[in-house]
């Protein structure tokens, strides 16, 4: 399997790692965030989302049948114990080499076994002068999976959106950083809680934050 990332300086006991994925030009992703359906499970219409799941054989991605996202209330007190359904990722997006490189970077970095199932969430959070955007409305949380990858695609006209990692909910974060386009944060979900702060516009008009969130297992049923 090809190696598609280079490490930067930050590691914490090999339990979370920040990578810069140099094989990906994020400009190639941007058009696919403009037609995301609104997330119907979050009030306020500030979040849009698609979701698909994959397995990888060598350097080849296989898209799996449609499924439902499910988390227990132990992990998601806001939307736990609800079967959530989202539209699949656009086929033209999945066919891009940069998309394959992103999934391979996640697999390589987490040392996943060949049969591992990966969920890929495509998420846009928006904000306006009248409304904040909340990337993590459930608060400080775990997802209930093994590994998480957060890949930044776009930050446009926003402030905030800083990602935090915690060893316990009531402790200070051990990691705090705004993820810039091309950066991939990998997290052991068994060891850390995570949270991203709300966003607001820097100037008049709309602000956007686009990310891919990858999980293994996929959390889809």
TrEMBL record:
Keywords: Dioxygenase, Oxidoreductase. GO terms for molecular function: dioxygenase activity. Pfam families: 2OG-Fe_Oxy_2. Gene3D superfamilies: q2cbj1_9rhob like domain (2.60.120.620). This is 2OG-Fe dioxygenase family protein. It comes from Atlanticothrix silvestris CENA357. The lineage of its organism: Bacteria, Bacillati, Cyanobacteriota, Cyanophyceae, Nostocales.
